[in-house]
Amino acid sequence: LAKTTQPISMDSYEGQEVNITCSHNNIATNDYITWYQQFPSQGPRFIIQGYKTKVTNEVASLFIPADRKSSTLSLPRVSLSDTAVYYCLVGDNAGGFKTIFGAGTRLFVKA
Amino acid sequence: KAGVTQTPRYLIKTRGQQVTLSCSPISGHRSVSWYQQTPGQGLQFLFEYFSETQRNKGNFPGRFSGRQFSNSRSEMNVSTLELGDSALYLCASSLPTVTGYEQYFGPGTRLTVT
């Protein structure tokens, strides 16, 4: 499983765009990049997943450069309710799930 | 479609007792994983079941065990509870053909050991 490195915490204000970068230098060819969001006392929620280039859904965008050694989760126009922990995971499900969550990034959105 | 459900939501047990937690995955999902979350250790992978077989296991003592039934429902058991087992236990399910780590988590069971 590729090791990931994310900032421990980030602050933002309502209405701003937030970009959280994750480093994964030893990403393997078959690995996908997946991001989760977690609120206190709740289970993580799948946000977005990608393999290369850019992926966008109704919640976020995921930017992956050509070398795939990093990825950036972009949250457009954040609100107070986006205050949460965001986890970046790298891997595939060959042989089943053996998910290793890191410490994640604590995002604080201020009014 | 109903999400992942976990029962009970809250549980208080005494040190030395055993506990069984239940997880019902999303319909059609055959993989079920269990996680332990504590403030100190974060989210830690316990084990994963697929088609009634344990496919992966994390670094937890043998007191932690699980099983999966033919309808994909899963249970995890913790025997001889210790104070350090107090945690939020999360279950996640996924489709068999998905790539990457697209899992859907339940609300968790909050276990308190006194």
Q: Please, how many helices of chain A? A: 0
List low-confidence stretches of chain B.
Answer: none
- Give the strand order, joined by hyphens, for the main sheet of chain A: 1-9-8-3-4
The value of Rg of chain A in angstroms is 13 Å
Query: What string, H for helix and E for strand, traces the elements of chain A in order?
Result: EEEEEEEEE
Helix content of chain B: under 10%
Mean pLDDT over the full residue set of chain A: 91
Itemize the secondary structure elements and their pairings.
The complex is a heterodimer of chains A (111) and B (114).
Chain A: E1 9-13, E2 18-23, E3 32-38, E4 45-50, E5 53-56, E6 61-64, E7 70-75, E8 84-91, E9 105-110
Chain B: E1 5-7, E2 10-13, E3 19-24, E4 31-38, E5 42-50, E6 53-57, E7 64-68, E8 74-78, E9 87-94, E10 104-105, E11 109-113
Parallel strand pairs in B: 2-11
Antiparallel strand pairs in B: 1-3, 3-8, 4-5, 4-9, 5-6, 7-8, 9-10, 9-11
Could you describe the 3D structure shown?
The complex is a heterodimer of chains A (111) and B (114). Chain A has 111 residues and is an all-beta fold. Chain A contains no helices and 9 strands. Chain B has 114 residues and is mostly beta strands. Chains A and B meet through β3, β4 and β8 of A and β4, β5, β9 and β10 of B.
Q: What attributes does this structure have?
A:
heterodimer; A: mainly beta; five-stranded mixed sheet; four-stranded antiparallel sheet; 47% strand; B: mainly beta; 11 strands
Short description:
The complex is a heterodimer of chains A (111) and B (114). Chain A has 111 residues and is mostly beta strands. Helix content of chain A is 0%, strand content 47%.
